[in-house]
From TrEMBL:
Pfam families: Hexokinase_1 (PF00349), Hexokinase_2 (PF03727). Residues 248-385 form the Hexokinase C-terminal domain. The keyword Transmembrane does not apply. Belongs to the hexokinase family. Transmembrane segments: none annotated. Keywords: ATP-binding, Glycolysis, Kinase, Nucleotide-binding, Transferase. GO terms for cellular component: cytosol; mitochondrion. InterPro entries: ATPase_NBD, Hexokinase, Hexokinase_BS, Hexokinase_C, Hexokinase_N. GO terms for molecular function: ATP binding; D-glucose binding; fructokinase activity; glucokinase activity. Its EC number is 2.7.1.-. The keyword Heme does not apply. It comes from Populus deltoides. This is Phosphotransferase.
Amino acid sequence: MSVAATTSPAIGTLYVSPSPRSRGMPRVTMALRSVVSVGSILTKLQQDCATPLPVIRHVADSMTADMRAGLAVDGGSNLKMILSYVDSLPSGNEKGLFYALDLGGTNFRALRVQLGGKEERVVATEFEQLSIPRELMFGTSEELFDFIASTLAGFAEKESKKFHLPHGRQREIGFTFSFPVKQTSIDSGILMKWTKGFAVSGTAGRDVVACLNEAMERQGLDMRVSALVNDTVGTLAGARYWDDDVMVAVILGTGTNACYVERTDCIPKLQGPKSSSGRTIINTEWGAFSDGIPLTVFDRDMDAASINPGEQIFEKTISGMYLGEIARRALVTMAGEGSLFGRAVPNKLSTPFALRTPDICAMQQDNSDDLQAVGSILHNVAGVTYTILPLL
């Protein structure tokens, strides 16, 4: 497409005409009939997203108060402050063959690693990653865990000669499960609720390790879950294998969460014998935090349309599952009220979650003169094809 532009102080119009290079592609007129309207939407969005220092301080103070309340008693705040039962972290001396299973969101990963201690560190690793079929995110517990166990069994069969299991030992696996779980021991935990768009039936209130063990038995897989950890705890443990000073881990992915090392005498709700180290890891589940977070109309609309309105507000404002959808909703408003893409909102752009966070990242990283990546993504997502020339 070739584009010519004329402007007045208040109005700008883009006239879109076909070029030889674009023949055969859908012709969609892109017009900025009301720059003032689109500009005002963007200005309002910027104002609603603003985080001046007083706002940041208020958010930080509110989160601190919620953390303390969550440490005092279960249910004391939106932050669950879950006890992980991980009272010691890797020293770097660990050796042997270990498997890991990571169910962290829309992706599922299986990993095996041969550790060689401080001298050899990580000797060898192999992993396999699959996307969770969307229908399983809304299916039954048995369907989801059977899919996971089947994939894990196939992965274990492909174990190469680089990995060595001592004779007579059963394969052990650490289960990283990145959803709110009330742990009852190092290798058991009750699912409190699904997040990140999952709505699997028959799992809430059950021990997720038992769900996995039952599925592995159905697959004939001889493997034992030796530890259940949140992905933040797993990240902290993995980093500690290399660096003794690591005390905090943060996840920014499909969802978001953080964990940290806390003194046991600062946890009033911790009953019974204290750990010999005097410390334990706390899984904050900070995705549920909400007090004082600046929210735009697009954040509120997306939350209202979600499967868990009013929940996981912090997660919905910053994590990978939602950022693309927030941007799409802003574009739909600019298209409808400001005629950003012509007289009508493109049908493809009107589809919820059509614009994904990886699309936004790719557009942000496009520094080319013709913004080819931006144009390609907008064409694929919204059916808009154009070439950008500067407005005069």
